[in-house]
Design a protein that fits this description.
By secondary structure, the chain is α/β, with parallel strands linked by helices. 39% of the residues lie in helices and 20% in strands. It has an eight-stranded parallel beta sheet with strand order 7-6-5-4-3-2-1-8. Bound molecules: pyridoxal-5'-phosphate.
Protein backbone atom coordinates (compact mmCIF):
# COMPACT_ATOMS: atom_id res chain seq x y z
CA UNK A 1 0.00 0.00 0.00
CA UNK A 2 1.39 3.44 -0.68
CA UNK A 3 2.24 5.94 2.02
CA UNK A 4 -0.67 8.28 1.31
CA UNK A 5 -3.21 5.49 1.72
CA UNK A 6 -1.55 4.35 4.95
CA UNK A 7 -1.48 7.89 6.33
CA UNK A 8 -5.22 8.18 5.70
CA UNK A 9 -5.82 4.98 7.63
CA UNK A 10 -3.54 5.97 10.50
CA UNK A 11 -4.89 9.46 10.99
CA UNK A 12 -4.65 10.45 14.62
CA UNK A 13 -1.68 8.17 15.27
CA UNK A 14 1.95 8.88 14.47
CA UNK A 15 3.42 6.51 11.91
CA UNK A 16 6.77 4.87 12.56
CA UNK A 17 8.04 3.12 9.44
CA UNK A 18 9.75 -0.09 10.55
CA UNK A 19 12.70 -0.65 8.23
CA UNK A 20 14.18 -3.79 9.81
CA UNK A 21 13.48 -5.97 6.75
CA UNK A 22 14.32 -3.48 4.01
CA UNK A 23 17.44 -1.65 2.96
CA UNK A 24 18.30 2.02 2.80
CA UNK A 25 16.86 2.47 -0.69
CA UNK A 26 13.39 1.73 0.70
CA UNK A 27 13.99 4.17 3.57
CA UNK A 28 15.02 6.82 1.05
CA UNK A 29 11.91 6.14 -0.99
CA UNK A 30 9.66 6.81 2.03
CA UNK A 31 11.75 9.81 3.05
CA UNK A 32 11.19 11.29 -0.40
CA UNK A 33 7.45 11.07 0.33
CA UNK A 34 7.88 12.92 3.63
CA UNK A 35 8.30 10.09 6.16
CA UNK A 36 10.86 10.99 8.86
CA UNK A 37 10.34 8.45 11.66
CA UNK A 38 11.83 4.99 11.25
CA UNK A 39 12.17 1.99 13.55
CA UNK A 40 14.79 -0.73 13.84
CA UNK A 41 14.90 -3.71 16.19
CA UNK A 42 18.63 -4.45 16.13
CA UNK A 43 21.27 -2.03 17.36
CA UNK A 44 23.79 -3.11 14.73
CA UNK A 45 21.34 -2.46 11.91
CA UNK A 46 20.21 0.84 13.40
CA UNK A 47 23.86 1.90 13.47
CA UNK A 48 24.47 0.79 9.89
CA UNK A 49 21.43 2.49 8.38
CA UNK A 50 21.69 5.66 10.41
CA UNK A 51 25.34 6.05 9.41
CA UNK A 52 24.62 5.53 5.73
CA UNK A 53 21.76 8.05 5.91
CA UNK A 54 23.41 10.43 8.37
CA UNK A 55 23.05 13.40 6.01
CA UNK A 56 19.25 13.16 6.34
CA UNK A 57 17.42 14.38 9.41
CA UNK A 58 15.73 11.08 10.25
CA UNK A 59 14.20 10.16 13.60
CA UNK A 60 15.32 6.67 14.59
CA UNK A 61 13.29 4.61 17.05
CA UNK A 62 14.70 1.52 18.71
CA UNK A 63 11.94 -1.09 19.02
CA UNK A 64 13.73 -4.37 19.70
CA UNK A 65 15.17 -6.42 22.50
CA UNK A 66 18.26 -4.71 23.87
CA UNK A 67 21.14 -7.01 24.75
CA UNK A 68 23.31 -5.83 27.63
CA UNK A 69 26.41 -5.79 25.47
CA UNK A 70 24.74 -3.39 23.01
CA UNK A 71 23.64 -0.74 25.51
CA UNK A 72 26.61 1.57 24.97
CA UNK A 73 26.24 1.37 21.21
CA UNK A 74 22.57 2.25 21.40
CA UNK A 75 23.26 5.20 23.68
CA UNK A 76 25.91 6.50 21.29
CA UNK A 77 23.37 6.47 18.45
CA UNK A 78 21.04 8.84 20.33
CA UNK A 79 17.74 7.37 19.10
CA UNK A 80 14.79 9.73 19.25
CA UNK A 81 12.85 7.14 21.28
CA UNK A 82 13.76 3.83 22.90
CA UNK A 83 10.38 2.13 22.71
CA UNK A 84 11.26 -1.24 24.17
CA UNK A 85 12.37 -0.78 27.76
CA UNK A 86 11.24 -4.16 29.05
CA UNK A 87 11.82 -3.92 32.79
CA UNK A 88 12.94 -1.81 35.72
CA UNK A 89 16.19 -3.76 35.68
CA UNK A 90 16.90 -2.85 32.06
CA UNK A 91 15.92 0.75 32.76
CA UNK A 92 18.60 0.88 35.48
CA UNK A 93 21.18 -0.75 33.19
CA UNK A 94 20.68 1.93 30.56
CA UNK A 95 20.16 4.78 33.00
CA UNK A 96 23.50 4.30 34.71
CA UNK A 97 25.39 4.49 31.40
CA UNK A 98 23.57 7.52 29.98
CA UNK A 99 25.13 10.96 29.91
CA UNK A 100 22.06 12.64 28.42
CA UNK A 101 18.31 12.27 28.80
CA UNK A 102 16.95 9.46 26.61
CA UNK A 103 13.21 9.40 25.83
CA UNK A 104 11.75 5.94 26.33
CA UNK A 105 8.60 3.85 26.61
CA UNK A 106 7.90 0.97 28.96
CA UNK A 107 7.00 -2.16 27.01
CA UNK A 108 4.06 -4.07 28.39
CA UNK A 109 3.43 -7.72 27.64
CA UNK A 110 -0.32 -7.29 27.55
CA UNK A 111 -0.87 -10.52 25.63
CA UNK A 112 1.05 -12.42 28.31
CA UNK A 113 3.01 -14.33 25.70
CA UNK A 114 6.19 -16.06 26.82
CA UNK A 115 7.84 -15.21 23.51
CA UNK A 116 7.37 -11.51 24.12
CA UNK A 117 9.38 -9.18 26.28
CA UNK A 118 7.80 -6.59 28.50
CA UNK A 119 6.39 -6.05 31.95
CA UNK A 120 3.35 -8.01 33.07
CA UNK A 121 0.25 -5.81 33.09
CA UNK A 122 -0.19 -6.18 36.87
CA UNK A 123 3.30 -4.83 37.48
CA UNK A 124 3.32 -2.13 34.82
CA UNK A 125 2.12 0.85 36.84
CA UNK A 126 4.45 0.12 39.77
CA UNK A 127 7.46 -0.36 37.52
CA UNK A 128 6.61 2.76 35.55
CA UNK A 129 6.51 4.82 38.75
CA UNK A 130 9.75 3.28 39.96
CA UNK A 131 11.53 4.13 36.72
CA UNK A 132 10.24 7.70 36.99
CA UNK A 133 11.50 7.93 40.54
CA UNK A 134 14.85 6.19 40.12
CA UNK A 135 16.09 6.60 36.55
CA UNK A 136 16.65 10.29 36.03
CA UNK A 137 18.51 9.95 32.74
CA UNK A 138 15.46 8.35 31.18
CA UNK A 139 12.59 10.49 30.01
CA UNK A 140 9.79 7.98 30.35
CA UNK A 141 6.90 9.23 28.23
CA UNK A 142 4.49 6.35 27.73
CA UNK A 143 3.98 2.69 26.93
CA UNK A 144 4.52 0.29 24.05
CA UNK A 145 2.92 -3.04 23.36
CA UNK A 146 2.67 -5.75 20.71
CA UNK A 147 -0.84 -7.10 20.15
CA UNK A 148 -1.68 -10.72 20.87
CA UNK A 149 -0.34 -13.08 18.21
CA UNK A 150 -3.78 -14.51 17.46
CA UNK A 151 -6.34 -14.80 14.72
CA UNK A 152 -9.10 -14.15 17.22
CA UNK A 153 -9.84 -10.45 17.02
CA UNK A 154 -11.34 -10.40 20.51
CA UNK A 155 -8.08 -11.56 22.04
CA UNK A 156 -6.11 -8.97 20.11
CA UNK A 157 -8.57 -6.29 21.19
CA UNK A 158 -8.29 -7.41 24.81
CA UNK A 159 -4.52 -7.07 24.72
CA UNK A 160 -4.78 -3.54 23.30
CA UNK A 161 -7.42 -2.57 25.84
CA UNK A 162 -5.19 -3.82 28.64
CA UNK A 163 -2.41 -1.52 27.44
CA UNK A 164 -4.83 1.37 26.95
CA UNK A 165 -6.10 1.11 30.53
CA UNK A 166 -2.55 1.20 31.88
CA UNK A 167 -1.76 4.17 29.62
CA UNK A 168 -4.83 6.04 30.90
CA UNK A 169 -3.85 5.35 34.50
CA UNK A 170 -0.39 6.75 33.77
CA UNK A 171 -1.54 9.93 32.07
CA UNK A 172 -1.43 11.74 35.40
CA UNK A 173 2.26 10.72 35.56
CA UNK A 174 2.98 12.34 32.23
CA UNK A 175 2.46 9.39 29.87
CA UNK A 176 1.79 10.79 26.39
CA UNK A 177 2.60 8.00 23.96
CA UNK A 178 0.67 4.75 23.57
CA UNK A 179 2.58 2.85 20.88
CA UNK A 180 0.65 -0.15 19.59
CA UNK A 181 -0.39 -1.53 16.24
CA UNK A 182 1.54 -3.29 13.45
CA UNK A 183 0.66 -4.14 9.84
CA UNK A 184 -2.00 -6.73 10.68
CA UNK A 185 -3.71 -4.98 13.56
CA UNK A 186 -3.06 -1.22 13.45
CA UNK A 187 -6.64 -0.20 12.65
CA UNK A 188 -7.90 -2.10 15.67
CA UNK A 189 -5.07 -0.66 17.78
CA UNK A 190 -6.08 2.89 16.83
CA UNK A 191 -9.70 2.14 17.72
CA UNK A 192 -8.43 0.96 21.10
CA UNK A 193 -6.59 4.22 21.72
CA UNK A 194 -3.16 3.89 20.13
CA UNK A 195 -1.52 7.17 19.14
CA UNK A 196 1.61 5.65 17.56
CA UNK A 197 1.73 2.74 15.12
CA UNK A 198 4.79 0.82 13.98
CA UNK A 199 4.32 -0.47 10.46
CA UNK A 200 6.69 -2.63 8.45
CA UNK A 201 5.44 -5.09 5.85
CA UNK A 202 2.39 -3.16 4.72
CA UNK A 203 4.57 -0.24 3.61
CA UNK A 204 6.70 -2.26 1.26
CA UNK A 205 4.36 -4.54 -0.66
C1 LIG B 1 8.74 -5.80 13.10
C2 LIG B 1 8.10 -4.99 14.12
C3 LIG B 1 7.01 -4.15 13.79
C4 LIG B 1 6.42 -4.07 12.39
O1 LIG B 1 5.80 -5.28 12.06
P1 LIG B 1 4.99 -5.47 10.68
O2 LIG B 1 4.16 -6.66 10.96
O3 LIG B 1 6.02 -5.69 9.63
O4 LIG B 1 4.19 -4.25 10.46
C5 LIG B 1 6.46 -3.38 14.80
N1 LIG B 1 6.93 -3.44 16.07
C6 LIG B 1 7.96 -4.23 16.42
C7 LIG B 1 8.42 -4.24 17.84
C8 LIG B 1 8.57 -5.04 15.46
O5 LIG B 1 9.59 -5.83 15.82
Amino acid sequence: MNLDEILKKTEGAKLIAVSKNVDTDAVLNLYAQGQLDFGENRVQELKRKSEILSNLKLNWHFIGRLQSNKINQLIALRPILWQSCESLKMAHEVNKRLDYKLPCLLQINSARELSKQGVEPERAIDEYEQILAECHNLELCGVMSIGAHENNENLIRESFETTRKIFDALSSKGAKICSMGMSDDFELAIKCGSNMVRLGRILYN
